[in-house]
C-alpha cells in the first residue's frame, strides 16, 4: 500500500465508488455534504482528487458536452484497482481495531 489514506481521501474514494458511473465533481461534493453533513469547497475536493490521481487511485474521462453546462463537458472519475486495494486495507485495519477496542458504543435509545 502507498501509505494510509487520509480521512477525506477515504471519504472521496468511497463516494466515487457509491456514485459509480455518475461520479463527477459536483455530484461527489453534494453526496459528501449530504452524507457527512460536512460543507466542503469545490477547490478542496479538486485538490484531493488531483492528489488521488497522482497516487494512482483514480482515473478520469470527459463526458459529452451538455446544454445545461453551457457546452462544457463533465469530468467523470473511476477507482483504480490500487484504490480498491487501499480501501480494502483501510477497512480491514479499522475492523480489526474496532473488534479489539475496549470502547463499547451503545446506540440504543434505552
Q: Can you describe this structure?
A:
- The longest helix is centred in the last third of the chain and has 20 residues, at 81-100.
- By secondary structure, the chain is an alpha+beta fold.
- Strands 1-2 form a two-stranded antiparallel ribbon.
- It has four helices and two strands.
- A hairpin with a 7-residue loop joins strand 1 and strand 2 (73-79).
- The model has no long low-confidence stretch (mean pLDDT 89).
- The radius of gyration is 16 Å and the shape is globular.
- It starts with 6 loop residues before the first helix and ends in a 10-residue tail after the last helix.
By secondary-structure content and strand pairing, the structural class works out as: alpha+beta
Sheet-strand content, in percent, reads: 5-15%
By DSSP (H or I, 4+ residues per run), the number of helices equals 4
Helicity, as a percent range? 40-55%
Question: Biggest sheet, open or closed, and with what strands and sense?
Answer: 2 strands, antiparallel
How far do the termini sit from each other? 42 Å
Strand order of the largest sheet: 1-2
Order of helices and strands: HHHEEH
Number of strands: 2
Key structural traits:
single chain, 110 residues, 4 helices, 53% helix
Question: What is this structure, in a nutshell?
Answer:
By secondary structure, this protein is an alpha+beta fold. Helix content is 53%, strand content 14%.
Please describe the topology of this protein.
Blueprint: H1 7-19, H2 25-36, H3 42-54, E1 58-65, E2 73-79, H4 81-100
Antiparallel strand pairs: 1-2
Helix pairs in contact: 1-2
